[in-house]
Amino acid sequence: MISLEAGKTWTILYPEYTTLYNREEIKSFPASYAVARDNASLQTFLNSWLAIQKSSGYVDKLYGYWILGENAKPKKPRWSVIKDVLHWVKEES
């Protein structure tokens, strides 16, 4: 058993494998930031910052945007001399 992120990478390398994830039981994802053993002030700061971000709902907002794709806007085609001026290429739909 490994993290979902590592499992997804494994499935790219070995397509015969798959990942399973139970949303009902797993409510958070592990992440880490290395802090020197004697640096208690940085550890306290990071823990406080994370608590504030969670309580404000910002973590959920980021998860919705980056993981679930909520509020994603489709990209508009870029302007092109060949396509828009010379009309050598038809616009893709």
Topology readout:
Layout: H1 4-13, H2 40-56, H3 58-66, H4 81-85
Total DSSP E strands? 0
Judged by helices, strands and strand pairing, the structural class is mainly alpha
* Mean pLDDT value: 82
Shape: extended
Main beta-sheet strand count, sense and barrel state:
none
Uncertain stretches:
none
Strand percentage lies at: under 5%
Secondary structure tally, helices: 4
Order of helices and strands: HHHH
Rg for CA atoms: 22 Å
**Distance N terminus to C terminus?**
43 Å
State the helicity in percent bands.
40-55%
Number of domains as seen in the coordinates: 2
Oligomer: single chain
Describe the 3D structure:
It is a single chain. By secondary structure, the chain is mostly helical. The protein has 2 domains: 1-32, no CATH class; 39-93, no CATH class. It is 44% helix and 0% strand. The protein has helices spanning 4-13, 40-56, 58-66, 81-85. The radius of gyration is 22 Å and the shape is extended. The protein starts with a helix and ends in an 8-residue tail after the last helix. The model has no long low-confidence stretch (mean pLDDT 82).
